[in-house]
Amino acid sequence: MAILPITICGEPVLHRPAEPVTEFDDELRQLVDDMFETCEAAPGVGLAAPQVGVGKRIFVWMYDDQDEAPARGVAINPVLWIAPPEPGLPGEDEVEGCLSFPGERFALRRSPRALLRAVDIEGKPFEHEVTGWFARIMQHEFDHLNGLLYVDRLVHPENRGAQKAERKNGWGVPGLTWTPGIDDLEG
Q1: Is 141 designated active site?
Q2: Into which CATH architecture does domain 6-178 fall?
Q3: Which of 46, 47, 118, 177 is the most buried (most CB within 10 A)?
């Protein structure tokens, strides 16, 4: 297993839809193992393949503060259905961050419920109905597979703060990465 470099906002793979997984082989198993190791080292609660430079429809999660699914899992070729979010601006308890926009946190209104359907590393279908922060994690990682970062969904005034952070950090251009355990960043 290896800790992989995490791509930063501006890397093209983060801004385009990921391709479906068609081969369930040792290479896929290695990628998923490396994603878990990278997510743990970051530390994060989820990591999508585009965040490690791989344009495939895969994400992992490591979140044990819920009873709705295994504390650690992989979703391959997922489909996500969400309930409409409550109208209005996000509250202070709706702040999230992203390993591809490291060290920054902004408030974003998300749906409180989600239904995830995907296949596991063996290609076996599964389904999880999730709520609360776990639903937020699923939406965040699923967005990565569709070429979106959470900062793309921010509304005023949060979007201004994200734009300012991007400029200040010199992000928004291809080729930027950070490696957990080596670089002094966190998301």
Answers
A1: yes
A2: Alpha-Beta Complex (3.90)
A3: 47
